[in-house]
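Morning F.,

Quick status update on the modeling queue. The single chain you submitted on Monday has been processed. Sequence for confirmation:
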Amino acid sequence: MKKIFAILMLAVVVMLSGCNQETTTSNSGKGSIDPAVFCLEDARYPRVSIKEDGVFQIYFNAMASGTASGTYTVSEDEILTLTTENGAVYNFEITRTAIVFDADTSSELLPETEDGALAETTPEIVDGAKFELWRKYE
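Structure tokens below.
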């Protein structure tokens, strides 16, 4: 009896998890993205934070010793473009539950320290790196 109950509970959990899949695109349709945090392939860092007021921040590690920040736009063909305060541009393709880095059309990743100097280590984020939706801002 316990086995049957466990199997039924597992089936219910699997069915419900498929129904609750969040998306990165906004309810307002193409050309927008919901404010959210995206993490590189199931890791906590690097992470991209997209905020409602049109600004973003990239945290390259937990110590915040390497960051990048600026503004973002979303094109009609679902390309998220991050433009840093120093003019670097990073492009990501928006998918259902992630953003995917396009190194070919992006600047070299140059994280800065809190005082504005370039960080000593640059993270390895390759073309096609997938930043999974971690959580949405409410």
